[in-house]
Amino acid sequence: MKNWDPLDEQGACSIDRDCEDAYRVCQKLDIPFHQVSYVKEYWNEVFSDLLKEYELGRTPNPDIVCNKHIKFNYFLHYAMDNLGADAIATGHYARTSLEDEEVFQLKHIKRPQRLFRNRFEVRNTVKLLQGADLFKDQTFFLSQISQDALRKTIFPLGDLTKSFVKKIAAEHGLHHSMGVCFIGERNFENFLLEYLEPQPGNFVSIEDKKVMGTHKGWFLYTIGQRARLAGLKDAWFVVDKDVSTGDVFVAPSTDHPALYRDLLRTNRVHWIAEEPPAELVRDKMMECHFRFRHQMALVPCVLTLNQDGSVWVTLVKPARAITPGQFAVFYKGDECLGSGKILRMGPSVYTMQQGKNREEGPKKEEIDKIEPAT
Question: Residue spans with biased composition (Basic and acidic residues) (predicted)?
Fold first, then answer.
């Protein structure tokens, strides 16, 4: 599957290498090799969205969006309709509630696309479950795929560990190769500046609002990352951005309270098996876990359902560097329930502390008695 045209830009690209790797594997296994190009679709449905998100001051996740629109949509339908496949298999570390044999028995039905899934249409919904190797689990990247796609997908690595898979590959003379999404490795700042106009602005201290330096564009920075400030030895970290002024707010430590928040709101959540889960519909609230970065520890939270299908996520304790544009991916036990894009965040612990200090003024000794929120 080719999703990027290296001729569109300067610089090296790993696509041809990936293609050769796939071809060699097919030769070794004596299976046919097919190549399909989704350069146009990737540009229209993944890359344009990525640029728009950066311009809005958010930090997108192209891997999740690509799986939703390209791999588990165009690619899946190509395999079914053009190659006559019964299912697709991918190398994600994930499992489903179906046995492989059941997947092959399911009939592939083309359903009309609707805004809402008919609750009565899909009787035996398929659940997306975490891979047995919890550290390598990749359900995070699959959290936006459709029920129809999941019913036609098998994950042969789901019950295996990464080290075991590497061992099998080595025994069969297949050398491990790894592509980075579909664009390859590159200097990301230079890459983005090929597509977005520089938007110079200031680095501003969150504490005293002092200008600490300048940057080429707020879209080059994400919350929680280190900001390289000219002439300063100490590390400063990005805690917030103001797209209207171009200011990127920074704080002088990696665990500064301005980096911690305990509330966020998503867009309309994509639920994988039940839309939305019955408990959430019944109680308007539900306890579960979530993460907003691959491989971060799961965080306990409470979801509150809004009329428009979005949710408020209240964390049991504040988390570091919650980032608009990233996906909040929800879990209950070993089931991945689905995900929503983070659009809004509640105030940081630092903002709350400042507010409390202003209100309570002279009562400092009382504040000291309260345990810090982080």
Answer: 356-374
